[in-house]
Design a protein that fits this description.
Elements lengths: L22 H16 L2 E5 L6 H14 L4 E5 L2 H13 L7 E4 L4 E3 L5 E3 L7 E5 H4 L9 E4 L8 H12 L3 E6 L16 E4 L3 H6 L7 E4 L10 E2 L2 E2 L1 H8 L2 H15 L3 E5 L3 H13 L4 E4 L5 H12 L5 E4 L12 E6 L6 H9 L11 E4 L3 H5 L23 E3 L6 E3 L14 H23 L5 H20 L4 H10 L1 H11 L5 H12 L39 H4 L1
Parallel strand pairs: 1-8, 1-9, 2-6, 2-7, 3-6, 7-8, 10-17, 13-15, 13-16, 14-15, 16-17
Antiparallel strand pairs: 4-5, 11-12, 18-19
Helix pairs in contact: 1-2, 2-3, 8-9, 13-14, 13-16, 14-17, 16-17
The structure holds zinc ion.
């Protein structure tokens, strides 16, 4: 590869930025500056709506001030324009920034065409597709937007050329995983999480979603290709008039006139759902990857100004699309990809006029991936780290909303969960802690054995915490948590086979009923143990795997 021999043009002096960095963005900028010193390929992770372009733009401003040259790589026309203007907002003069794209034209802030070709400018915002075919501009720092896509050969070739020339690479993404569940370890050597969704919600930068787990399709037997469900088979199962009618009905029930985006399984499916909305008198339009650019822009404008209420699409609005007033997200597309799920739901979490975002999950995604606001522990080797695991959820008995299992008050209707339900949630937390301890101690054991030990230990503590006096009550309690426990364990142990999971579930179901052969005994708390001969109570601690060993092991 040969770099074009552009001189390092100073390109005008910096202006004040027109926006102020949030606290966590300031921290992120400082962290990134420190981390690139030791990691030449740094990956920054921030949830959708956290303002990663602001962070990049301010880092770029600082780099320009030091006389460095910067390249910002993106995939889509809209992102290239948005990023260009964000960099200008950060105080980099227009004359110091250029665009490398098919015809070099972007839109200005009024939507008019704007020729941004300035090949000598020290900042270049470039389309990956265009750049592979052209002489690469010189750069000391290369930003890679939506970095989870950048595993293709074209990108790798660009990246290795810049690395060879001594440049640093900084990737940006909300979802550092690929569709097939693999990580980005071959493209980056350090991953830095800037903020979690829960933190952004707590500080008002994102809105807390109201989530509904709606009936989801039976996906048994659907082929899995490259880590996700086969689209043609999904279309066969999900593209039905009944489901389309359900989607419309749920929107009428829950949407309350919100601007909505519906993620469908196929183009035909999206068109059908769109037709059903219109038939119900709700103005809707359909978008897919083949929709011509000007038509797509017009559709999105009508959505933005409220002319239409609903946009049904197939794979178009998952990324790089930003409409704060969109506050209803129907996830109809089941996906094994956590990244895709988070990208879909992330579209509606930006705050807008105090309207709560609604997630209508028709695809079983919450069950599979947890709530959107759940904290994620990312790693470069793919999937989530096994560490904290997915938090369990429960349904509000008053409004039907799906909420974190530990929630004391329903964020949707204000229902206060009784103490007992909160305790039920706590047992899965106990199982989690015990499972971790068991995992650390018993590396050689099979998953199922560890599960048994973990549950044994946790239920003992749980029983004591509830002070359940009789086995019947206790037994019922544990069985009611069967699914939660197994689902939880599956998240924590992705290597467990379906057979092992089935065995685990069966094991809990088969626990001997109380009173039979005296095998179920709730161990008394240490201080309650009757002392021999009626003396001072014995305070011998109950061992972790205690009396429950006798159940089944
Ligand atoms: Zn509720």
């Amino acid at each position: 590869m040969c770099f074009s021999s552009a001189p390092t043009a100073a390109g005008g002096s910096l202006k004040p930025a027109t926006f102020t960095a949030r606290d966590y963005q300031e921290t992120a900028i400082a962290d990134a500056r420190r981390l690139v010193v030791t990691h030449r390929r740094l990956l920054l992770v921030l949830p959708t709506g956290g303002g990663k372009t602001c962070i990049a733009a301010l880092i770029i401003r600082g780099a320009i001030a030091k006389g460095r040259r910067v390249l910002f790589l993106a995939h889509r026309r809209e992102i290239i324009a948005q990023s260009f203007w964000k960099i200008v907002d950060a105080g980099v003069p227009e004359t110091s920034a250029g665009v490398v794209m098919a015809n070099g034209r972007i839109t200005d802030r009024t939507g008019a065409a704007y020729d941004a070709r300035r090949p000598l400018a020290p900042v270049q915002v470039a389309s990956v597709q265009t750049l592979v075919r052209r002489a690469q501009p010189q750069a000391d720092l290369v930003f890679v937007d939506e970095a989870h896509h950048n595993t293709a050969d074209s990108y790798q070739a660009i990246a290795s050329a810049y690395l060879a020339s001594g440049a640093k690479i900084v990737g940006l993404t909300a979802t550092p995983c690929r569709g097939d569940g693999r990580g980005l370890g071959d493209a980056f050597d350090h991953l830095h999480v800037i903020a979690q969704t829960s933190g952004l919600i707590a500080n008002g930068y994102l809105s807390e979603p109201r989530c509904w787990t709606l009936p989801s399709p039976d996906l048994k037997g659907v082929r899995v290709i490259k880590g996700d469900y086969d689209q043609a088979e999904l279309d066969k199962r999900l593209n039905t008039t009944k489901l389309a009618a359900d989607i419309v009905r749920e929107y009428q029930r829950l949407g309350d006139g919100r601007t909505a985006v519906v993620f469908c399984v196929s183009v035909a499916h999206s068109k059908n759902v769109c037709t059903q909305f219109n038939a119900a008198g709700i103005p809707a339009e359909h978008l897919d990857a083949e929709t011509p650019t000007d038509v797509r822009d017009a559709i999105l404008r009508r959505l933005a100004d409220g002319t239409t209420a609903v946009c049904c699409n197939m794979g178009v609005l998952t990324e790089g699309w930003d409409l704060p007033r969109a506050k209803y997200c129907a996830v109809v597309r089941p996906s094994k990809s956590l990244g895709l799920y988070l990208q879909m739901v992330g579209r509606v979490l930006r705050p807008w006029q105090g309207v709560a975002p609604i997630i209508a999950d028709h695809g079983g995604c919450i069950k599979m991936h947890g709530l959107p606001q759940e904290d994620r522990e990312w790693s470069l080797d793919g999937k989530e780290k096994v560490a904290p695991g997915a938090a369990p959820t429960k349904e509000c008995p008053s409004c039907g909303c799906t909420v974190p299992a530990a929630a004391r008050v329903c964020p949707n209707c204000g229902y206060e969960f009784p103490e007992k339900e909160i305790e039920a949630a706590q047992i899965t937390e106990l199982v989690r802690v015990e499972a971790e301890a068991a995992q650390a101690k018993l590396k050689t054991d099979s998953a199922i054995l560890m599960l048994r030990k973990a549950v044994n230990s946790a239920v003992g503590k749980y029983a004591r915490s509830l002070a359940l006096a009789n086995g019947t009550e206790f037994h019922a309690e544990i069985k009611s948590l069967n699914t939660a426990i197994v689902r939880h364990f599956k998240k924590r142990r992705p290597d467990m086979t379906d057979d092992e999971l089935r065995a685990a579930r069966q094991w809990i179901q088969d626990m001997p009923p109380p009173g039979l052969s005296g095998t179920i005994v709730v161990p008394p708390a240490p201080h309650e143990r009757p002392a021999p001969n009626g003396g001072v109570p014995e305070r011998k601690p109950v061992t972790a795997l205690g009396d429950y060993e006798t159940w089944t092991l």
